[in-house]
């Protein structure tokens, strides 16, 4: 990255990554904390060992212990075989706990116990297993607020606050937007096997001037839609989402996953336009038609009928 805030952060990271200490990353949703965590791992002496991420906000509380510590065969209904958890998978390497503030209180005590002695037992087992991992965690807001509310244990809070680093939001490092555009377009063009859109200077200036409440994640979503809907074509400011055209800072909050929506030009047949919008939305939702329907604010049956019609 070329921005001053990111150069300063990288300088600190190169120093602390070599030390086997707990690092806590604080930054807005979508600001790239997962990328920074992997960067820390790659700079550390553990780089040749596994990097195991776990999103604490995405796992149901009833399944969390099994995800973290694993389980023995027959430990509960449906446990038909032994499963090694994230801690065991990361042994020798780095364990990344994204959104650690969402870790259930009961699991916080068990995780703290593991941090103290680096030993654990799988669910349904009694054997103690040693695991040498380097923990890295991330949160989108300071954990001391959760401690005051009683939703995060003070003893775990003090245990993980060895090195705390703030990942700046994209609006505070606008010099990184142009290199990120080039990086994402190359990745997305290869992924979707499409000719890259050509973003002209005015459109690039509009992208650099936007507030990006959804940070890097929002930028990547916008570029993915451009790769699908403007493949091989010149992208002008009028081809960008309305909020970016106007330079608006409104729209989704930083933790809202709703995408920036496109104004579609009908200079092509209507059916083709509808199909491309649907295709792009399904890509963003990884093929999940129900989520695509919610995102487009249309009925699931409408999507099913459209897909059936376009394939016939």
Query: Biggest sheet, in brief?
Result: 5 strands, parallel
The Rg value, from CA coordinates, equals 22 Å
CATH topology of the largest domain: Rossmann fold
Q: Supply the number of helical segments.
A: 14
Strand content: 5-15%
What's the shape?
A: globular
**So, CATH architecture of the largest domain?**
3-Layer(aba) Sandwich
Q: Going across the major beta sheet, what is the strand order?
A: 2-5-8-1-9
Question: Could you spell the SSE succession in H and E letters?
Answer: HEHEHEEHEHEEEHHEHEHHEHHHH
How many beta-strand segments? 11
Please state the structural category: alpha/beta
Poorly predicted regions: 249-259, 261-268
Outline the structure in words.
The protein has 312 residues and is an alpha/beta fold. The chain has 2 domains: 4-168, P-loop containing nucleotide triphosphate hydrolases (Rossmann fold), CATH 3.40.50.300; 174-311, Helicase, Ruva Protein, domain 3 (Orthogonal Bundle). The protein has 14 helices and 11 strands. A 5-stranded parallel beta sheet has the order 2-5-8-1-9. A hairpin with an 8-residue loop joins strand 6 and strand 7 (129-130). Helix 10 runs antiparallel to helix 12 (270-284) and helix 12 packs across helix 13. The longest helix has 16 residues, at 177-192. The radius of gyration is 22 Å and the shape is globular. It starts with a helix and ends with a helix.
């Amino acid at each position: 990255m070329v921005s001053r805030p990111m150069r300063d952060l990288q300088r600190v990271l190169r120093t602390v990554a070599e030390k086997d200490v707990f690092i806590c990353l604080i930054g807005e949703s979508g600001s790239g904390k997962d990328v920074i965590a992997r960067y820390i791992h790659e700079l550390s002496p553990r780089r040749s060992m596994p990097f195991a991420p776990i999103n604490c906000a995405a796992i149901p509380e009833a399944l969390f212990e099994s995800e973290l510590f694993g389980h023995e065969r027959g430990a509960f209904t449906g446990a038909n075989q032994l499963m090694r958890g994230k801690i065991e998978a990361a042994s020798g390497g780095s364990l990344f706990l994204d959104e650690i503030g969402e870790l259930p209180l009961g699991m916080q005590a068990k995780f703290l116990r593991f941090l103290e002695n680096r030993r654990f037992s799988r669910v349904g087992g009694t054997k103690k297993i040693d695991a040498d991992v380097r923990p890295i965690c991330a949160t989108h807001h300071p954990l001391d607020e959760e401690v005051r509310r009683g939703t995060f244990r003070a003893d775990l809070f003090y245990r993980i606050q060895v090195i705390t680093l703030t990942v700046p939001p994209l609006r505070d490092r606008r010099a990184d937007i142009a290199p990120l555009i080039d990086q994402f377009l190359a990745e997305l063009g290869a992924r979707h096997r499409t000719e890259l859109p050509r973003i002209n200077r005015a459109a690039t200036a509009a992208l650099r001037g936007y507030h990006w409440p959804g940070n890097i994640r929002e930028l990547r979503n916008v570029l993915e839609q451009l790769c699908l809907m403007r493949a091989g074509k010149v992208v002008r400011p009028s081809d960008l989402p309305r909020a970016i055209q106007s330079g608006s800072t409104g729209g989704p909050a930083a933790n809202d996953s709703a995408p920036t929506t496109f104004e579609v030009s009908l200079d092509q047949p209507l059916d083709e336009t509808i199909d491309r919008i649907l295709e792009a939305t399904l890509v963003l939702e990884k093929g999940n038609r129900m989520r695509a329907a919610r995102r487009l604010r249309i009925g699931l049956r409408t999507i099913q009928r459209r897909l059936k019609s376009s394939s016939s």
